[in-house]
Amino acid sequence: MPVYSSLRIGENDAGHIRAWKKRTAEKLLVLRAALDAHIADASGGDPAVRAPERNGRQWLRLATWNIREFDTPRYGGRLKESLYFIAEIISHFDIVALQEVREDLACLKSVIQFLGRHEWDYIATDVTEGSSGNRERMVFVYQKNRVRFTSIAGEVTLEKSDLITDSSGLCFRDASGLKVEFPDGFTLSSSGDVPVVKRKGKLLLENDLVIPLPAGTRIVLPLGSSLVLPGGTQLPVENGQVAFDAASHQAWSPQALVRPPADALSGVGLQFARSPFLVTFQAGWLKFILCTVHIYYGSGRGGLARRNGEIRKLTRFLSERARSEHDSDADNFFFVLGDFNIVGKNHVTWQSLHENGFMVPEQLRKIPAGSNVARDKAYDQIAFWQPDARPDPGSPFIDVGNAGIFDYFRYVFRWGDDDPDCEDERYYARHTAKHRLTYKEWRTFQMSDHLPMWIELRTDFGTDYLSALSSSG
């Protein structure tokens, strides 16, 4: 459980410090009671059904949570009470995959300190470079007396032949303007209707428009292009010099390459925008591999295509790995969890998550609301790969218990729809005014714009094993 000794009211505390500590303690009591009730009542989204009672030592609570820009100096950074609230939420689970953890780990280390360094630990990646990576880390936070890290961790990278491409494929561009010379009589036009959208008074292409070019079309290469002759190319030599003339052209041109400037090609195969993080753990009898992700979001048709491509390539990679381990009698079970930026449960991004043998457990599938603060998107998910054949009698298998999505904004950083008096909004007004944000938006930089999602996994298969032994021939 979290350590709250720093909230002790001291004799020399100023009045405003005493008031802050008292208020924070009151909020933590409300949050703690709400979490206890939420987990006790979790029923896969059906409020009429109470979750079955479970022996906590036999079940592991696995959660995923995208903590928005954790922590960014934008808008003043996290307040101390926000770190207490985050620690309290994490403490109700045994292992939590965190996304959007930034380069500076100071706030994460503070949360671990509140949780108790002797009881909790974390494993983190280095930051992902590049504009798409946003210098984010992938992190697992886990309770050491409930989960054991089994010494294998790594980031997922794709083979060259399996890299992700955008919707338009491999293309050539000239930043100064493409210089094209068409054959005589050719008119640049497309067949059929062209879908367009109107934005700010301008007609824009809704999708990529592809127009075949005739033979004889010429394009002037941009400045910075190079001619590359591979090693082993046969060339005529005169007086120690290679003769690049019309007579020698037929000898070297079939092997010649043209290297454009680095920014002249689009659609070149890409790795994941943020490297998925794969780590092995064990809890009781259950050995498992967790892969946490923050899938590319993007915008428009091209961004959505890349997002969907990342989901498909990741699940295919992991399913091949899972199938290989299963065939070699390894007893690890594979889970993928995190922020997939899935649009909805009827969307192609949801289908791509499931098409390579992974499945979201029914307990999560039947929760009607999403995991974003607005509760209308299926961004976050937890899925597992289950082998076709059931294990031997008495062997561990994936047994999912209760599940849920916890909406902490009903208890801390409340907003007008939840709190008609909106005491929290008035309390934090000086912060929102300083940073010129609405309170509703500002509070997501204190907690997050995502809600934690969780499932229970059975970890004790002793009774199954002994029963199989006792009933054997």
Descriptive account of the structure:
By secondary structure, the chain is of the alpha+beta class. It has 3 domains: 5-164 and 275-412 and 447-470, Deoxyribonuclease I, Chain A (4-Layer Sandwich); 173-225 and 260-266, no CATH class; 229-253, no CATH class. The protein contains 11 helices and 22 strands. The strands form 7 sheets. A 6-stranded mixed beta sheet has the order 3-4-2-1-22-21, with helices on one face. The chain has a 6-stranded mixed beta sheet with strand order 5-16-17-18-20-19, with helices on one face. A two-stranded antiparallel ribbon has the order 6-15. α2 crosses α3 and α5 runs parallel beside α6 (348-354). The protein is globular, with a radius of gyration of 28 Å.
CATH class designation of the largest domain: Alpha Beta
Sheet-strand content, in percent, reads 15-25%
The CATH homologous superfamily of the largest domain is called Endonuclease/exonuclease/phosphatase
CATH architecture of the largest domain, by name, is 4-Layer Sandwich
What is the CA-atom radius of gyration, in angstroms?
28 Å
Main beta sheet: strand number and arrangement?
A: 6 strands, mixed
What is the helical fraction, as a range of percent?
10-25%
CATH topology of the largest domain: Deoxyribonuclease I, Chain A
**Residue-averaged pLDDT, rounded?**
86
Strand order of the largest sheet: 3-4-2-1-22-21
Total domain units: 3
Number of helices: 11
Which term fits the overall shape? globular
How widely separated are the two ends? 47 Å
Uncertain segments are none
Count all strands and give the number. 22
